Amino acid sequence: MTVLGSRRIDSYWVLVLPLLLLLVALYVYPVVKVLVVSVTDPTTGLGNYELLATNSGIQKMLWVTLRICVITSAITMLLGYIVSYVLVHVGERHRLWMMLFILIPFWVSVLIRSFSWLILLRPDGLVNDVLVGSGVVGEPLDLVRNEIGVVIGMVHYMLPIAVLPLYANMRGIDRSLVAAARGMGAGPFEAFWRVFLPLSLAGVAGAGLLVFIFSLGFFVTPAILGGGKTIMIAEYVSIQILTIVKWGTGAMLSVVLLATVALLLMAMSRVINVREMFGAK
Amino acid sequence: MGSERTSWQFCLVVGLAWLILLFLLLPILVTVPVSFTPERYVSMPEFGDWSLRPYESVFSGDQWLNSMGQSFVIACAATALSVVIGTLAAVGLWRLSSRLADMVRWLALLPLIVPPVVSALAFYQVFVQIKRLVGLRMLDSYIGLIVAHGILAIPFVVITVSAALANMDLRQEQAARSLGANMRQTLWHVILPNLKPGILAGAVFAFILSWDEIVVTLFVTSRRIFTLPRRIWSGIREHLDPAIAAVATLLIAVTIIAVVVAVLMRRRKEASQEG
Predict the structure, then answer these.
(1) Which residues of chain B does A87 touch, with a Cβ-Cβ cutoff of 8 Å?
(2) Does residue B230 have a pLDDT over 70?
(3) How far apart, in Å, are the Cα atoms of A137 and each of A24, A146, A164?
(4) pTM here?
(5) Rg of chain B over all Cα atoms, to the nearest angstrom
(6) Hey, which residues 113-132 in chain B have their CB within 8 Å of chain A?
(7) Roughly what angle, to the nearest 10 degrees, separates helices B8-25 and A56-89?
(8) Which of B183, B244, B255 has its CB closest to that of A107?
(9) Pairing with A175, which of A75, A237, B140, B148 sits 20 to 30 Å away (CA)?
(10) What pLDDT score was predicted for residue B83?
(11) Is B73 exposed, middle or buried (0-12, 13-18, 19+ CB in 10 A)?
């Protein structure tokens, strides 16, 4: 049975072969080639990587990217935590309605969402019309073509991405522990702060890391709401490649982005067992 | 269960949560009134002044309809490609447990992990290289974009099908094999029928990914291929045309209907399982 059994198991590699060939030839090899280009264009060596230390434009762009991603992740996780907490604690019909308000934006294309924010936040857009018309401000506020608009757009995009895993994680928290704390005399806030919150922090870290990783590589929303004046790394790379045709710089920044994402994911992967995710037995 | 949840603190938090949810949904709906403006530029129409002109400009000219057609064809083909390759691989990986198989599992997820702009760069240069080596034009062509979108969608299919496989009874496969079925028969008659929900979910993800994809598309297409996202993108960059708002409103309407139907169907299935 063992010899026959192991021969049968091996034949399952036939099913995996198409994926293996396609991805290695048309995905892994090209991505590796980007790494190679980063050290061969325009001259061989680490010249492109030196730009990280010498080019102030690149340094400013990286700093802007980091700042926006940290702020976006922090705001998103705060707002997402509130929504997830309520989701977990309300009744089923209530939860259904909340889910609709989360899932509909989640499935609407990022282009359309960014377009909506552009319409709203422009100097002659709806938000400024209301602010100026009601006398709250004297002139229209600058809400697009700067970091404020980008952060608003990114938080709006990332919220469902934060809520869904956070909600799944919070569902696993044993709420009888909170009830026990209340039974021992803790007020509602104290029970939350000292029992529920610590238990939820692992989920917050996981979802927060996910949001941060997504934010780093984000292209569409920063490009549309940044208006060419607030530029993050993904748009900067596209300018290097498509407009200025400086492959070496573009490839180098891609490698930096990819390496950062990979490192963050390795930190996160200590929690997820990949083999179990694929159901291998 | 309910007693401590009616404290005023909880009501406050629920109120906050709904404010956040309104922040999530309402801004998207601004495209609805804008899509009815009579002007040629993006503006809010006055109360009695709603016009169908933006919708007319979408459905009369060639441009928007051509783009929708291209997006549809590419999305269907990319979905087919990713579903076939992804499903087969998921089934294979389900029964394999070596270190090499573990590496392939990570490989299957790679297009999801790599930031889109890096994928775009990679596809762009490999397509240039293919043209040079074999003469096959993949830049600005249907086949190039279908292959690129298909590869990007594979992780989704592998994940959903693997989730379905995790719920499947291994003994069905073992029974079929011990009764003499070869792999093709086992696959077709025993395994795949159980995977239909997983395959369908993967196909839906793949289709939507391709339909909405813009970053890779920006790099690997120029004039011949002008998908719907590209037309929206260049519309936003060049001139805020109310036609964009009309297209956006239509897509949002489809999304709302699809999500509501999906949620209601899920609820009805769960209710019938309890009854």
Answers:
(1) 17
(2) yes
(3) 57, 19, 37
(4) 0.90
(5) 24
(6) 113-126, 129
(7) 130
(8) B255
(9) A75
(10) 97
(11) middle
Q: Which two tokens stand for residue B61?
A: 């000219």
Given CB atoms, is B222 within the 8 Å cutoff of chain A? Answer: no
CA–CA separation, B54 vs B58, rounded Å? Answer: 6
Hey, what are B1's tokens? 């269960």
Six token digits for residue B107: 């490989």
Segments of chain A scoring below 50 in pLDDT = 1-4, 6, 273-281
Residues of A in contact with B105 (CB under 8 A): 274-275, 278
Contact A89 B10 (CB under 8 A): yes
Contact indicator for A99, A84 with CB cutoff of 8 Å: no
DSSP string, chain B: --GGGGSHHHHHHHHHHHHHHHHHHGGGGGHHHHTT-SSSSS-PPPTT----HHHHHHHHSSHHHHHHHHHHHHHHHHHHHHHHHHHHHHHHHHT--SHHHHHHHHHHHHHHHS-HHHHHHHHHHHHHHHHHHH----TTSHHHHHHHHHHHHHHHHHHHHHHHHHTS-HHHHHHHHHTT--HHHHIIIIIHHHTHHHHHHHHHHHHHHHHH--HHHHHH--SS---HHHHHHHHHHH---HHHHHHHHHHHHHHHHHHHHHHHHHHHHHHHHH-
Query: What does the block give as tokens for A229?
Result: 């004046």
Asked if A116 lies within 8 A of B30 by C-beta distance, the reply is yes
